[in-house]
């Protein structure tokens, strides 16, 4: 192979790797400057907001990292941005590893990626485009890379993930000019793409003055032939992402090696590298600490450390290694994959038949929205500008402790249920005291909005320590879908019914939608995502109907991940949006007109998919809006949204407590964009990650 095992450096972060670049490049919005804060405090103020020592500043906006559940902090730029290299993080971490005797390849986010990910700051002119700052940014990259070269760095990985998206084509000349400049000052550049196919962008990417090109051969194995043909006459090294950086299934090493041989046969062993498809940020660390999975289940999976081992085996296989240990590892992998395939053939016929029997009528409410709205007005009797929350209330240490004690057996089921009822009583009482109109039960019984449902469904397994970063210090433990999904019994009906029994105000049932459960789990790879989503939708449809039968006449089915699941190439959108919207409608359309369906979305760009948001036909949607300065509402004004909507009036992902006037100002701004009779008032998202002191500070 082209080189021995390569370790990367420069990817460690205290909060977010994109925020690292903003801070290092002095791309600091004016509102964080001149506050008397240290550099580290400015960094965290941008990530989390700050409300202490006389400083009151909100956090910067977060968005999803391509089609993953990771959130990055969006850089804010304007004509006034003055880039400079405040510090060279890539160099510092390279030197730290070197001092330990480890030679690494530093990883840097590319200049075009940084600018395309950014947004115009508040002080930017109306027609400002972030990409226009490329000439000002390139000298900073040249300095960063030249310092690496001076330290003896042989090669650097520069990530330009937009090369797998349509947007890159319009910047072809800028990619060419930028890398022509950078290559003069830099160590050898391995240009990395991931999460998709180069497609038409290959025509210029293959000509860039770099030493190598990394492609995602796991998600898009079909691109190998085109890439090999495009670079065969060059000296470019091809890094093949044969081991998935996005899922937890054991790699079929025989199949992956066959893909690798396609490249080796054309380019030679010295021009091909075996690699993971992307950073392993999106996978848990290791299976070694998983003690509750059955031996059969554990044999199905491969986490980050195990994936590194798979890469090493593949490299040996593609190098024609005669090592008996490599042959043994390959044979063990074949046996393991064969057992998994045998398990996959065992399907639940009842679930499969139910999916096959879905009819168009199951995707429709009984009446159009205007008729439903009139029925709901009479039934729910909500005032103008009804107030509600998104669902969860603070998950206190007492709640987490009680859940842990139940798991350990030191708390009986009866004691735990008494505790949960008391928590619900307190949450309902609080909402009544502050005057909210549509209440929630607070979700004290739930560990996570996806895991909780997965634990109640058939077809999932769970890890003990399979934590994956969502944003900052927030980690989630995604469930794993291993077989056909069904609901053996009601899940939320009991607690929602209890909450309704202790108040005369309407109670909102809270569910996580099928597309979000799918996108925030590790899905199967032997069955299409569409089939898995519709299985989940049918299970949730049963829950929605049971909630209505139990007297819950407002039901929220959250779909915060519907936008993040959108394929990176526009040509792939229609198929995804069709089955994603159909799945939501399948889950929510079994109720009467008088029952109000809600859905929630966060950190999404709606412009491109607005017709699909409209086609969901939820009676009420709530959306994150405060972090984006309400700019997300422009799409709703531009396209016209006919159903009710609750834009978030404050950011719950920051500990900062907004003032009363700030919230009033946001509502006034909303009324300039949306009809008053359609407006709900609510926070950006659920309150699970906040404390009671912060919650009371907003509502009291």
Overview of the molecule:
The protein is α/β, with parallel strands linked by helices. It is built from 25 helices and 22 strands. Strand 15 (about 470) and strand 16 form a beta hairpin. The protein is globular. About 50% of the residues are buried. The mean pLDDT is about 95.
Task: Reconstruct the topology from this structure.
Elements: E1 7-9, H1 17-24, H2 39-48, E2 50-52, E3 55-57, E4 62-64, E5 71-73, E6 76-77, H3 89-99, E7 104-109, H4 111-117, E8 119-120, H5 134-150, E9 155-159, H6 172-185, E10 188-192, H7 202-205, E11 212-216, H8 224-231, E12 237-243, H9 253-267, E13 272-276, H10 295-298, H11 304-318, H12 324-344, H13 349-356, H14 369-380, H15 397-408, H16 413-434, H17 451-456, E14 458-461, E15 468-471, E16 474-476, E17 480-486, H18 493-501, E18 508-512, H19 514-519, H20 529-549, E19 554-558, H21 573-588, E20 596-601, H22 610-616, E21 620-623, H23 633-639, E22 644-647, H24 660-671, H25 692-699
Parallel strand pairs: 1-7, 6-8, 7-9, 9-10, 10-11, 11-12, 12-13, 18-19, 19-20, 20-21, 21-22
Antiparallel strand pairs: 2-3, 4-5, 14-17, 15-16
Helix pairs in contact: 5-6, 8-9, 9-11, 13-20, 15-16, 20-21, 21-22
SS-based class:
alpha/beta
- The proportion of strand residues reads 5-15%
Radius of gyration based on Cα positions: 26 Å
Q: What is the end-to-end distance?
A: 64 Å
Work out the helix count: 25
Q: What's the overall average pLDDT, rounded?
A: 94
The gross shape turns out to be globular
- Helix coverage percent: 40-55%
Annotation, overall tally of beta strands? 22
**Strands ordered across the widest β-sheet:** 1-7-9-10-11-12-13
Reported for the largest beta sheet, the result is: 7 strands, parallel
Report the uncertain regions. none
């Amino acid at each position: 192979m082209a080189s021995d095992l390569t370790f990367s450096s420069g990817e460690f972060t205290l909060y977010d790797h994109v925020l690292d670049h903003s801070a290092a490049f002095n791309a600091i919005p004016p509102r964080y400057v001149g506050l008397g804060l240290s550099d580290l405090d400015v960094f965290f103020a941008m990530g989390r907001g700050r409300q202490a020592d006389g400083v009151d500043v909100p956090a910067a906006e977060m968005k999803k990292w391509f089609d993953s559940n990771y959130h990055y902090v969006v850089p804010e730029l304007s004509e006034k941005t003055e880039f400079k290299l405040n510090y060279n993080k890539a160099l510092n971490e390279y030197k730290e590893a070197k001092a330990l005797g480890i030679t690494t390849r530093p990883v840097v986010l590319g200049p075009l990626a940084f600018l395309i990910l950014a947004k115009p700051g508040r002080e930017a002119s109306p027609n400002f485009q972030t990409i226009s700052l490329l000439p000002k940014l390139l000298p900073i990259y040249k300095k960063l890379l030249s310092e690496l070269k001076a330290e003896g760095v042989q090669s650097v990985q520069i990530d330009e993930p937009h090369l797998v998206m349509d947007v890159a084509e319009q910047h072809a000349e800028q990619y060419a000019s930028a890398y022509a400049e950078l290559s003069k000052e830099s160590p050898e550049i391995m240009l990395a793409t991931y999460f998709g196919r180069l497609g038409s962008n290959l025509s210029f990417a293959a000509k860039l003055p770099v030493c190598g090109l990394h492609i995602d051969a796991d998600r898009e194995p079909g691109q190998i032939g085109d890439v090999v043909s495009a670079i065969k006459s060059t000296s470019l090294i091809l890094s093949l992402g044969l081991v998935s950086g996005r899922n937890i299934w054991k790699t079929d090493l025989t199949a992956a090696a066959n893909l690798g041989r396609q490249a080796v046969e054309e380019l030679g062993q010295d021009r091909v590298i075996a690699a993971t498809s992307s950073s392993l940020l999106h996978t848990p660390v290791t299976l070694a600490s998983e003690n509750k999975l059955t031996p059969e289940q554990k044999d199905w999976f491969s986490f980050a450390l195990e994936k590194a081992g798979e890469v090493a085996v593949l490299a040996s296989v593609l190098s024609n290694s005669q090592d008996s240990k490599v042959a043994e590892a390959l044979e063990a992998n074949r046996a393991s994959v064969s057992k998994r395939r045998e398990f996959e053939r065992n399907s639940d016929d009842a679930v499969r038949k139910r999916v096959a029997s879905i009819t168009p009528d199951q995707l429709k409410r009984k009446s159009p929205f205007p008729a439903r709205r009139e029925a709901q007005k009479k039934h729910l009797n909500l005032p103008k500008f009804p107030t509600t929350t998104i669902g969860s209330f603070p998950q206190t240490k007492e709640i987490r402790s009680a859940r842990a004690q139940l798991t350990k057996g030191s708390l009986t089921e009866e004691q735990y249920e008494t505790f949960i009822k008391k928590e619900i009583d307190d949450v309902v009482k609080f909402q009544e005291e502050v005057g909210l109109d549509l209440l929630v039960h607070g979700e004290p019984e739930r560990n996570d909005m996806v895991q909780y449902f997965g634990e109640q469904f058939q077809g999932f397994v769970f890890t003990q320590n399979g934590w994956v970063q969502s944003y900052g210090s927030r980690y989630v433990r995604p469930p794993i879908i291993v077989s056909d999904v069904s609901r053996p019994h009601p899940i939320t009906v009991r607690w929602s019914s209890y909450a309704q029994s202790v108040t005369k105000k309407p109670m909102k049932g809270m569910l996580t939608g099928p597309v979000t459960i799918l996108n925030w789990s590790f899905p199967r790879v032997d069955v299409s995502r569409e089939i898995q989503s519709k299985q989940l939708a049918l299970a949730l449809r049963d829950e929605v109907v049971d909630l209505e039968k139990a007297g819950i006449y407002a039901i929220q089915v959250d779909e915060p991940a519907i936008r993040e699941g959108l394929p990176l190439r526009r040509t792939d959108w229609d198929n995804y949006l069709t089955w994603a919207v159909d799945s939501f409608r399948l889950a929510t359309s079994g109720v009467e007109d008088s029952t109000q369906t809600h859905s929630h979305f966060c950190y999404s760009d709606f412009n491109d998919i607005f017709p699909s948001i409209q086609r969901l036909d939820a009676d009420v949607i709530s959306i994150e809006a405060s972090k984006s300065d309400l700019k997300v509402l422009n799409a709703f004004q531009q396209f016209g949204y006919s159903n009710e909507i609750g834009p978030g009036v404050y950011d719950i992902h920051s500990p900062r407590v907004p003032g009363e006037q700030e919230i009033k100002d946001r509502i006034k701004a909303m009324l300039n964009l949306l009809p008053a009779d359609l407006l709900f008032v609510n926070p950006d998202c659920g309150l699970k990650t906040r404390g009671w002191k912060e919650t009371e500070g907003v509502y009291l």
